[in-house]
Design goal:
The complex is a heterodimer of chains A (214) and B (455). By secondary structure, chain A is mainly α. Chain A contains ten helices and five strands; from the N terminus they run ααβαααβααβααβαβ. The chains are: A mainly alpha (214), B alpha/beta (455). The interface between A and B is large, with 61 and 63 residues. Chain B: Its main location: membrane.
Chain lengths: 214, 455
Amino acid sequence: MGSSQSMSEEVRELVSKTGFSSDQIEQLHRRFKQLSGNQLTIRKENFNNIPDLELNPIRSKIIRAFFDNRNLRKAPNGLADEINFEDFLTIMSYFRPIETNMDEEQLEHCRKEKLRFLFHMYDSDSDGRITLEEYRNVVEELLSGNPHIEKESARSIADGAMMEAASVCVGQMQPDQVYEGITFDDFLKIWQGIDIETKMHVRFLNMETIALCH
Amino acid sequence: MFLLLPFNSLIVNLLGISLTVLFTLLLVFIIVPAIFGVSFGIRKLYMKTLLKIFAWATLRMERGAKEKNHQLYKPYTNGIIAKDPTSLEEEIKEIRKSGSNKALDTPEFELSDIFYFCRKGMETIMDDEVTKRFSAEELESWNLLSRTNYNFQYISLRLTILWGLGVLIRYCFLLPLRIALAFTGVSLLVVGTTMVGYLPNGRFKEFMSKHVHLMCYRICVRALTAIITYHDRENRPRNGGICVANHTSPIDVIILASDGYYAMVGQIHGGLMGVIQRAMVKACPHVWFERSEVKDRHLVAERLTEHVQDKSKLPILIFPEGTCINNTSVMMFKKGSFEIGATVYPVAIKYDPQFGDAFWNSSKYGMVTYLLRMMTSWAIVCSVWYLPPMTREANEDAVHFANRVKSAIARQGGLVDLLWDGGLKREKVKDTFKEEQQKLYSKMIVGNHEDRSRS
């Protein structure tokens, strides 16, 4: 990247918005250019060029998460057609590691954001609840590669897990009570006391450059 | 008008004399040694001088950068994120452990399992192993070629002059010299092999064929100013064997064939390549395939087996990766050549990118552009290691054998050993790979599912 003044303005803005360091932003910018083929925006098709991603069973959900308006903080539902570098960084910022100098409030906020990202991954129709159907859908995707598991088994696994979630959130249900789905608050309740922040981050290599001159 | 005439003839005379001198020098210092396989050591001296100059240039750039208080080196090439080497099972166990107080062995699905896949997905989006291998390696010091310079702003006046001098030498002196040599080498090859083809079959023909081939390849090596160091020459391939090597560029063929006598395998091309191929096959049996035959794997395997079983025929030279890789890693070896059952002689080739990057990025440069780039670099410096021969063991399948050979080559050459297919340069991942992770995960979930009673 050139060292012109205007670029560092933008970079500074991005640093304050997303919390990445300017070095990390530079590298991610390089990666963005590589993925987008030197265009200004990325579309869904550009993610098809990553061979390692093909191995991932929930790759379509991950890619979708990049274009999800809720994650981009643009709208309460719907999908964007293409994202620019700032949007790319916004999504990446959900996976930033926890900094040691964060106070309680920042930590709580960070955690909530990460969990919200996951919630959006499950809740594909953006109605604010993870219904049984949506849950089943995720389980099926995760297990889809195994030919020995029939759809029925996948469903029953999902049903069982859903029931457990329900019991945590609502307690014992009456026989005629219908459980509508896991809301975000219920989702938070499930994860209370569980340390997920350390599992939901990507660690950047220490980018201190080699000592230049002797 | 009068003044021009003697002037003209003077110029013509000078031209004539200089050409003769040049030609004699060429003959004495380059072609004659090539014929006899000896070397004056001129290239090694050249290499040492260049190294000294590069070191000086790098120092100047560092000084320049320090004055401006900027960063010069950016260690990107090994990736920008730290990927956890833990496996799927370990991670999911850990996530569940930190969560519920349920027994660890109950195989069931948890909301948290999605974390692992989500994170892995993100990591690959940020940085993946494969796409890196298909672009040229970045250098840490500058070798006075503008094509490898990423830090233009740190060049002082002195460096610019040096660089300009370098351009002059490379384009006006080295390039014509190299083109002349290449031309000589190729035409000698065509003419020589055709002539040898007229000889009656016998020991004399073989002797002549071998030496014509070697001589022409040696001239070509000098045409590229390739400085090659061969290691462990006692392991060189013998008749009835298959020689496999990692592939970085079409020059690999010239490098290996100038030190040994091989039978080539490949597709018949049209044009100049075709002429060369047809001439070569007159002198000794190479294995050329028509375009239509290449698709038929059985036919290919049959012809190769036939060749290999005839002990009088030469060792076959094959590049199992199937495409050019940028010489920082070795990618998947196609199993075809390992199914034949002959002794495999692995060879590792490692180029030193300081003098000229030999990697052929076929999506970026055509063949002619590539050759021009090669001929305007300083030199091609590489090391060749002949590894001890390997054979397929009794209950080993071809894929496993191929991977074993690949690891040996990667280890010797100091390259990264990757399982990925070089074909990914142009195609997408095969479905069979995609399903591996899903199978593993689902085994974990369903494993003892039969025992579990549902409420």
